[in-house]
């Protein structure tokens, strides 16, 4: 509640943005981002959050950026998400789209938040491509430590690419045709079972959609 009161006060003292259209307003470098309590759920849900999750949010570098406690080179911002330059870029223009709410992984992120982030990809990537002189980019999500996730706050990478930049060593590896053997069919069956309503233990309403049977 204290955080919410501070947010209200700060919005009256120095409101974010102006009467100008957001897309046409130049944002200062290392701008202070709008304050957020890093949650988009209802007040009742917020009160039910345990102390452990609050500690995780307080230590999260992305939450600090969202709350205005840490600087960032901000490219875009709306009510649901913001886009910043990666501080350890793989290429010139490497950017991150992050939700203003704290979710530790893609699986923990509600579908409507993922949709809000992904809906901005064409708009933001187009601007980055023009600014960097690139015509290609990788859209990447590192989900989990073994997949390379370092900051456990959901984020999407937009990585501009140029010809022969040799960014991914795996691109030089030879790809082999899929083997239609017992292991492959077993994999298909296992995934289908997990996706079926009977095999999925998650709340169907939380997933936002159901699997249509063919």
TrEMBL record:
Query: What's this protein's name?
Result: HIT domain-containing protein
> Which terms in the Gene Ontology molecular function aspect does this entry carry?
adenylylsulfatase activity
- Organism listed in the record: Juglans regia
User: What range(s) does the HIT domain occupy?
Assistant: 61-168
**SUPFAM superfamilies attached to this UniProt entry:** HIT-like
Which residues constitute the catalytic centre? 155
**Transmembrane residue ranges:** none
Highest taxon above the source species? Eukaryota
Q: Where is this motif: Histidine triad motif?
A: 153-157
Gene3D superfamilies per record: HIT-like (3.30.428.10)
């Amino acid at each position: 509640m204290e955080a919410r009161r501070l947010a209200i006060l700060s919005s009256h003292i120095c409101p974010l943005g102006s009467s100008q259209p957001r897309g046409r307003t130049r944002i200062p470098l290392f701008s202070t981002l709008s304050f957020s309590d890093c949650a988009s759920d209802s007040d009742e849900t917020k009160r039910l959050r345990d102390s452990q999750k609050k500690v995780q949010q307080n230590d999260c570098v992305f939450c600090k950026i969202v709350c205005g406690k840490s600087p960032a080179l901000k490219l875009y911002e709306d009510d649901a998400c913001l886009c910043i330059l990666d501080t350890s870029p793989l290429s010139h223009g490497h950017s991150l789209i992050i939700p203003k709410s704290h979710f530790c992984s893609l699986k923990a992120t509600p579908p409507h938040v993922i949709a809000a982030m992904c809906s901005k990809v064409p708009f933001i990537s187009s601007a980055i491509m023009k600014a960097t002189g690139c015509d290609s980019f990788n859209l990447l999500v590192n989900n989990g430590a073994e997949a390379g996730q370092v900051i456990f706050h959901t984020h999407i990478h937009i990585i501009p690419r140029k010809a022969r930049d040799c960014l991914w060593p795996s691109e030089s590896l030879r790809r082999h045709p899929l083997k239609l053997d017992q292991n492959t069919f077993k994999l298909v069956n296992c995934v289908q079972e997990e996706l079926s309503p009977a095999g999925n233990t998650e709340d169907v309403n939380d997933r936002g959609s159901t699997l249509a049977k063919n």
